[in-house]
Each structure stands twice: as structure tokens, then as C-alpha cells.
Amino acid sequence: MKSLKEDFLKYQAKTTPYPLGITIDSAKGSYVYDSDGKSYLDFIAGVSACTLGHCHPKIVSAIKKQADRYLHVMVYGEFAQEPSVKLAKELAEVLPKKLGVTYLVNSGTEAIEGAIKLAKRVTGRAELIAAHNAYHGSTHGALSLLGSEQQKKAYRPLLPGVQFIQFNDLKDLEKITPKTAAVVLETIQGGAGFVTPKNHYLKKIKKRCDSVGALLILDEIQPGFGRTGKLFGFEHYGVIPDILVMGKGMGGGLPIGAFSSSAQFMSLLSEKPKLGHITTFGGNPLISAAALETLIVLKKEKIIETIPEKEKLFRKQLKHPLVKQINGKGLMLAPLFETEEIANKVVLKSMEKGLLLFWLLWEKKAIRISPPLNISRTEIKKGCTLLNEIFDEIQEENC
Asked: What are the structural domain ranges in the chain?
């Protein structure tokens, strides 16, 4: 459908000069279909957002059922709306007790904004510490925590009092001081190439935070909701954050974010001043219904328990001389190549052959593999077979 692509390029704002530009007709399960009827096996899942694939029947049913009852009725925090209350309660039941109260917002980056405001309110401090190569979103507060100067220098001035540490570098622990309100870290660094914490790093960060009275904010926007083989990534590492940030896969394909903390901490947003954090559409009942159903299906159908086996299958299938290593955990994997050029070829050749892959923000030599969590083993093998054929092609071209 040429006119749709032309209108997309003409009227819709872009994030890069060269978008992939597939014209979408429909999507179902692990597949996306374009306007010409071509099918694509989806190894992206909306950048980790479509937890249960596309148009999961139970999520669609929950959306339709709620749409027949009511949509937006009031700004967040004033009316008791069943889907949002049930979602917050369900989260309290699966999270540690110190994370028992949840504030629902519209996106991961908005959740980051709320979390850093809460940390400042709790501690009475202003300094924030984030990691080099971090990505927490693109609003001004979240951008201030972004660990790439090249990406944010055009938008300065940003928040003052933000310092940076190297992820996994214990020498930088001394930068966390009694001036620090919070350390904000991705449990697994996404844009940096799905870098996992090593040598009890997160536990040592938390111990240092506790010793100086700082809070630990963990960004689970991407690892959360089963992607790593646990409901939340921090469960692998023996640490519980003071504030937990969620988004992406939480909504099963609809836009949502949230941050959770203790009732004591969260109460600070409701007084002195009142309306300490406000949002019109946060906790939207339609989106909450989708998020609640996503969480219920993950639990009832024991999908998370299948993730470690699927990770092993990916790692086994993608053993190839071109692949130097595979970063990440669960179905949050990043094959790493010798050069950026190889990574680009893999993504573009895959799209031509009906397999959707994507790049990572800062690690240009890697590609993203983050399929729906309920992808079948047959689909994994199919995609990996195609990838290995592409690897062979590229290897022959480079000879």
C-alpha cells in the first residue's frame, strides 16, 4: 500500500531519517502481516512490549469487555475503578511487601519521573546517580539519567546534580554518598547491549545505598513481566529495590507504566503538597484491564516457567562463528558481532526474508532478540534457521 507509506513519511513525525517503513495490516500471535500479505516472524514483540504476542484472545476479550462498561471517567486517584484497583492489588500480591503500593501511569518514562520525585521527597536530597550507557526514557528528567552525552547534549540544560557510575564497577560505589537521594539502575542494561549484573553487583549497590541513606530505584521497564524467566529481573539477584519502575510488557501491547514502593513512602505524594504527582490518564480502565489480564495469563498458564528452556534453545540454535557472544537473560537476548556493519546486515536481510529483528541503542554491534514470551519452540527454531542462513550469507560476502 504505497499511499500509506507515503503518508506515513509525510505526515507522521519520525525518530530517525530512515524508518523501516513496513505497512502493517494485522498481527496475530508471533506474526506480523504487511499490506501486501507478507508475513514476518516477530522476534521484537514491540520492543519487549507485546508480552503475550499480538492480539492474545484473552487480552482482546478483556479490552472489549471493559470497553462496553466505561472508558475514562476521572483523573487518576479520585474514583475507584475496578480494573485499576484489581491490577494494583494483584501486583501487591506478587511483589515483596515493601513494594505493596503502586502508582499507575502512562509509560515507563513517566514512571521514572514519578520515581525520582518520590526519592527526592523521601530523602530530602537532590543528587541522583545513574549508569553510563543507561536508558530510562526521553522526557527531561529521564533524559537527565540517560548515560550517553551524545544523545542528550542537544537538550541541555537538564536536571542538575546527576552523576554517573560504570555499571558492574565496584570502585564507583564510593560515589554514592549521604548527598545521594537515589541510585537509578536498569536491572539489566537494555540499550548497552543487555548487560547483566555480575559479582553480586546489585546487592552491593543496595548495601551501599542503605549505609548512606540513599534509595535504590530499579528500572524493570524492559526486564519485567517475565522476560528474564522471573516475574521481575531483580528476583535473580537477591535484592529488593526501594522503588520499582515498570512499563513496556506490563500492558500486553497497550501503553502503561507504574512505580511501586511502600505505603509509607507513597503517602508522601498525597500531601504537603497535595497532588504531589498527578496524571489524567494513568490507571485508564481499558489499559488496566489489559495489564491485569496479561498478569493473570502469565501466572495461570505458567508461561514464565518456560523462559529458561527457550533461552537455552536460542543459545543452542545460534552457535555460529559470526556470533561472538550472546548477552542477556531469558528472552532478552543480544547476539554480538565483530562489527556494526554485520549487525546492520543481519537486521535488514532478516526483514527481507520475513523475520523481524531490531537494533540496540548504544551497542551497535549487537541485535535485539525479544520475542513474545509465548513464542513456540517451533517458531524459535524456524527463526534461528533463517538467521543461520543469513549468517552464512554474510560470512561468504566477507570472504
From this structure: 2-55+306-398, 60-300
Unique residue bearing C-alpha cell 549487537: 366
**Is residue 323 within 8 Å of 391, Cβ to Cβ?**
yes
d(CA 364, CA 193): 8
Please tell me the distance from the alpha carbon of residue 59 to that of residue 289, in angstroms, as a whole number.
8
- State the Cα–Cα distance between residues 359 and 22, nearest whole angstrom: 16
- DSSP run (H or E) holding 206: helix 201-212
Asked if residue 161 has pLDDT above 80, the reply is: yes
The full length of the chain comes to 399
Supply the mean pLDDT for the chain.
97
Q: What is the pTM of this model?
A: 0.96
Domain 2-55+306-398, what architecture? Alpha-Beta Complex (3.90)
Is the predicted pLDDT of residue 1 greater than 60, yes or no? no
**Rounded average pLDDT over 344-371:** 97
- Are the CB atoms for 288 and 255 separated by under 8 Å? no
* DSSP single-letter state for residue 196: P
Closest by CA to 117, choosing from 241, 270, 256, is: 270
Question: Nearest-CA neighbor of 220 among 205, 233, 201?
Answer: 233
Structural fold of domain 60-300: Aspartate Aminotransferase; domain 2 (3.40.640)
